[in-house]
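Notebook p. 47: complex prediction with 2-aminohexanedioic acid.
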Amino acid sequence: MTESINNFINGKWVQAMSGKRFPSLNPADSRDVIARVADSDVRDVNAAVKAARLAFPSWSNLPAPKRGEMLYRAAEIMVKRKKVLGTLVTREMGKILPEGLGDVQEAIDMTYYMAGEGRRLCGETVPSELPNKDAKSMRVPMGVCGLITPWNFPIAIPSWKITPALIAGNTVVFKPAEETPVCATRFVEILEEAGVPHGVINLVHGFGETVGDPLVRHPDVDAIAFTGSNEVGSQIAGICGSLQKHFMMETGGKNPIIIMDDADMDLAIEGALWGGFGTSGQRCTAASRLIVHKKVCDRLIKQFKKRAACLIVGNGQEQKTQMGPMVNEAQYQKALNYIDIGKKEGARLILGGKGTKRGNCAYGNFIEPTIFVDVTPAMRIAREEIFGPVVSILKVNNLREAIKIANDISFGLSAAIYSRDVNKTAVFERDMDAGLIYINASTIGAEIQLPFGGTKKTGLGPRDAGGRGGALDHYTKWKVIYRDFSGHLQKAQID
Ligand code: UN1
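Predicted complex, structure tokens below:
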């Protein structure tokens, strides 16, 4: 039976005011309509922002450890439901089941971590230059936060944004990707069950133009966080800049794996397969460029191709499947279009390069694992984010050239090197301009206790997830307090 999915506004599950609904489809099998979802507009956004504003004073005044207890309970519920939630992630987003479960695990980790922050929202206490005076800083919430999340990590990425926003005392209006509304709904239901009060977390389903845009422009929304495409991110950045709203975004990558001549070749190939074809390449951290030392390039290409050709493409709900579909027709077309561009640019296609309808792939958006060789750094397939199972291989003479090519793009999210030479890996660590650096590991697999995000066009503002410089820097502002208990006028800086 097809489920009806509603908005969650002021603690009530309600239809969109338009009365309209849009479908959520299984990307592996379009005959499977998972839900009919509230198709919202500015009216629903306004109601949600109003509820969030009204809930703000009492939520922000609740002691943070109490807010943390609710998050802790939410994490406990997710642990119990991990299998059901992971299966849903696979059904709605398409990634294979172990990755669907991983998506949920990342949300569990994040929610526990932020629950702990309830007792650790640290500021500084420093000595004053004057007697009988003290000086401290503390984090205070921003107010109402608008959170816009993508479909590729439909539970993990919402948790990166919602849990730090809540622990810091903000209230939230959450607009999830229209491709994965059911996953988002399950996450919000869990927060409700865990005792998060009415109006603190509000969920509005719908599309960028009709929900995202009014949310970003709403005068009563104090801060916006966005993960998604670079084009949309820069549009939102412009709007937030002109309205002087606090903004952060994370918008993608073109992540390299450098493979040196002294690398453990088997390990490097495992990493390249996982980075290139895991989640069908639909990760911001996907390894879409292999930059390989000329001495081992032919060997690498041969072995990598052999392994990639054996990957079983299909419905991620089946145990044997190793790579699922593209999330929708648009992503499918985008990847095929880039494959076309690669061919026209003169790169040599050695594997895949087309959609597949074979076996159980008849009703989904499947693309074969695709490899290009003879790729040069100027080609678009070596510079632009494809977000599909397409890997470009570039040959280099030495480490310096490899790092130069790795850096010579407009993104800087994630980057990896395989080498047994500790000095070479140290040079890479120092000279690579990216937010996440991996040594002898693939470009994917960031953990939540450190900031997630990148340099250059990858991101703006504080990073997602935990650690210093992580999400709390977006969801709080600093308040500095000087208290003078001398009983007379004291003047700082005046002799
Ligand atoms: C993303 O692709 O947008 O490091 C997020 C990783 C995951 C998160 C990826 N933990 O690949």
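Notes: Residues 106, 152-153, 283-285, 444-446 surround 2-aminohexanedioic acid (CB under 6 Å). The chain has a mean pLDDT of 97.
Next step: compare against the earlier run before touching the bench.
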